[in-house]
Amino acid sequence: MRIDLLAVHRLGRTAEAGLSHDYAARATAAGRSLALGPVQIEEVEGRKPGAVSEGEALLAAAEGAYLILCDEGGEAMTSKAFAAMIQKLRDQGERRLIFAIGGADGHSPAVKARARRSIAFGPQTWPHALARVMLAEQIYRAVNILAGSPYHREGPA
Length: 157
What we know:
The chain contains five helices and five strands. It is of the alpha/beta class. The chain has a five-stranded parallel β-sheet.
């Protein structure tokens, strides 16, 4: 199953872009034997600023995929639950999974209506560049959880 991080705006050659691509490459390598990957980062721009135009660009890039939004109002989940969600979608035969990160104004109503699910990185507000890094790392972590790798460790109960 191909996994894409679809994000509004281009990061260029920033530290966050480098970290995001590093985790995506690690997830791709680790996920091959699990039929997960490639993991890719795709950046889109709206024709005009704002959620509606950015949403049109997101929807065009997400056509035919299982779409999950990264949104502050989404479901907070543990890393193990996140991994289980990815595993379940793969096992159900989904061929392409997209995690969408919107622009500064969030996701448009059209994108929210099209999404199958919405997740959050907790109640805090995160810069979009850091959200990409965190999402890429969580995908890498999920692949490792599913592979039984010691990368993920549970804290004390």
